Automatic annotation (TrEMBL):
CDD domains reported in the protein's UniProt record: RHH_NikR_HicB-like
All residue ranges annotated as the Transcription factor NikR nickel binding C-terminal domain in the record: 56-131
A GO BP entry: regulation of DNA-templated transcription
Pfam family membership, one: NikR_C
Phylogenetic placement of the source organism: Bacteria, Pseudomonadati, Pseudomonadota, Gammaproteobacteria, Alteromonadales
Organism, scientific name: Ferrimonas lipolytica
Protein's UniProt name: Nickel-responsive transcriptional regulator NikR
Keywords of this entry: DNA-binding, Transcription, Transcription regulation
Keyword Transcription set for record: yes
Gene name of the record: nikR
């Protein structure tokens, strides 16, 4: 794959914000930031257009151990969707709260469905699913 040079015009306020983002996120130059922004848009559009896209993902959430039967319900969900689960890690945040991170692989729509089930359990405080399309195309 060859690299092409392009020229862009941005108003000065937007350029200041772009440089701030690049510096805060540790980019060495604007080009790297632009490449990542474009790749992000390609991934998002691919997932929206093709919900059956094969993905790897992480699902992380914090839950309250004082909620009766919550740990059992979360584990039952993991067992029911075992075909998507590759690994999981449980971290003690403090005496009452745990963070669970689950490595997943499957179709984007299936992974989103599983995440919705886990995150909607009463006692799960906050969480996030991060989908990464599993494609051999270097542009993603």
């Amino acid at each position: 794959m060859s690299t092409e040079r392009i020229t862009m015009s941005l108003d000065s306020d937007l350029l200041v914000e772009l440089d701030r983002l690049a510096a805060e996120d540790g980019y060495k130059n604007r080009s790297e930031l632009f490449r990542d922004m474009i790749r992000h848009q390609i991934r998002e559009r691919m997932l929206a257009a093709e919900p059956a896209t094969d993905c790897v993902a992480t699902l992380s959430y914090v839950f309250d151990t004082r909620k009766r039967t919550l740990a059992t319900r979360l584990m039952d969900n993991l067992n029911q969707y075992h075909h998507l689960v590759r690994a999981n890690t449980l971290v003690c945040v403090d005496e009452h709260f745990r963070m669970e991170s689950i490595a997943l692989r499957g179709r984007a729509d299936q992974l989103q469905h599983f995440a919705n089930i886990q995150l909607s359990e009463s006692g799960v405080l906050n969480g996030c699913l991060h989908l990464v399309p599993f494609v051999a195309n270097e542009t993603c």
